Amino acid sequence: MGFSDGYLLSLTTVSLFFSLSIAFFPGYDTHFMGPGFPYEAHPLTGLCPEYYQFTCPQADKIVISVLKEAIAKDPRMAASLLRLHFHDCIVQGCDASVLLDDSHYIVSEKNAKPNKNSLRGFEVIDQIKEQLEEACPSTVSCADIIALAARGSTVLSGGPTWELPLGRKVSKTASLKGANANIPPPNSTIQNLIALFARQGLDQGDLATLSGGHTIGVARCVNFKQRLYNQNGDKKPDETLERSFYYSLERVCPRTGGDNNISPLDYASPVKFDNYYYKSILAQRGLLNSDEVLLTGKDQFVAGLVKSYAEDEALFFDHFSKSMVKMGQINPLTGYNQGEVRKNCRRVNDAF
């Protein structure tokens, strides 16, 4: 059977349209076409690991190169970037709203109580974005940069890797109220932690697993002072604190002043991603109340996971990878009718 010239012309036009679409629109969402053209996205979120395969294949290498330099200069930076991902996703989804600075129409989440004078890593994200803009202009979103930086920081600290779904756009808004309401405070009870995680579609297993991110990093004295001097409003320390650990914390965190003094969340290996965080909890040496209640909060499932992870690092790594993927897919903005790809992670494009 032959084809008419008109049919062939139409077919050529359609092919040209899709070729131009892929060429001129970075990360073009062709997943609806089915497997392998050029990739298949998650059916619910629209994210996929190969999102930048054709538009910025060097993205992860650029992220890792910046991270290596930043973490070599400041080993705490790995934990800061991992925490930044959590504080972004837990508010209004993984949309890089946490990166927005104050402006005429943005009230920054950086001013929220859990973030102010605490959240770090913004300059590293800026550096990554600057290099990505040079290599692949207006292509890799700030939300994906945060997710890539969190994974890279985990790996560079000795932790697991995971297949990371990509393709998030970023929001044009921030939520100071949401940050204050949704980020778990350090004095949380187990019931409070479970409720806050459930609000984001995360379960008790995710709570026990993602808390393991505290195997690297530090906390400020103001966040654990209550445990040392007035845990139950009776001007007495938390009875669950191991005594020698209590005395060491007392030297770092005095009853009066010293609020910004820091202490490792994992005394045994504060810059190595491992399972000593859980071993510390079993030894009554969890730094924050929100750490210790994973064991003492009378939730048998969570406490059971703490014990399992303390015994089996490989199990913790496997579960952590899966929970990070799950958290990274909280309410992503995808497609062309939601969000944008910012040129500067600190402000929306309309501000330019």
TrEMBL record:
| Membrane-crossing segments per the record | 6-25
Q: Which cofactors, if any, are listed as required? A: heme b; Ca(2+)
GO MF, one example: metal ion binding
Listed A to Z, the keywords are:
Calcium, Disulfide bond, Glycoprotein, Heme, Hydrogen peroxide, Iron, Membrane, Metal-binding, Oxidoreductase, Peroxidase, Pyrrolidone carboxylic acid, Secreted, Signal, Transmembrane, Transmembrane helix
Question: Domain named Plant heme peroxidase family profile: which ranges?
Answer: 46-349
Q: Which residues bind heme b?
A: H214
On cofactor binding, the record's note says:
Binds 1 heme b (iron(II)-protoporphyrin IX) group per subunit. Binds 2 calcium ions per subunit.
What Pfam families does the annotation carry?
Answer: peroxidase
Residues reported in the UniProt entry to bind substrate: P184
Please state the Enzyme Commission number of this protein.
Answer: 1.11.1.7
Question: What SUPFAM superfamilies would the database entry show?
Answer: Heme-dependent peroxidases (SSF48113)
Q: Kindly list the GO CC terms recorded for this protein.
A: extracellular region
- Give the residues the record marks as binding Ca(2+) 2: T215, D266, D274
Q: Quick one: a GO biological-process term for this protein?
A: response to oxidative stress
Would you say which domain of life the source belongs to?
Eukaryota
What is the uppermost EC class here?
Answer: oxidoreductase
| Localisation per UniProt entry | Secreted
Among InterPro entries, the record links this protein to: Haem_peroxidase (IPR002016), Haem_peroxidase_sf (IPR010255), Peroxidase_pln (IPR000823), Peroxidases_AS (IPR019794), Peroxidases_heam-ligand_BS (IPR019793), Secretory_peroxidase (IPR033905)
* Repeat as UniProt keyword: no
Q: Which PROSITE patterns match?
A: PEROXIDASE_1, PEROXIDASE_2, PEROXIDASE_4
Record site feature (Transition state stabilizer), residues: R83
Per its record, the protein catalyses: 2 a phenolic donor + H2O2 = 2 a phenolic radical donor + 2 H2O
Q: What is the disulfide pattern of this chain?
A: C56-C136, C89-C94, C142-C345, C221-C253
Task: List ligand-binding residues for Ca(2+) 1.
Answer: D88, V91, G93, D95, S97, E109
Q: What does this protein do?
A: Removal of H(2)O(2), oxidation of toxic reductants, biosynthesis and degradation of lignin, suberization, auxin catabolism, response to environmental stresses such as wounding, pathogen attack and oxidative stress. These functions might be dependent on each isozyme/isoform in each plant tissue.
Protein name listed in UniProt:
Peroxidase
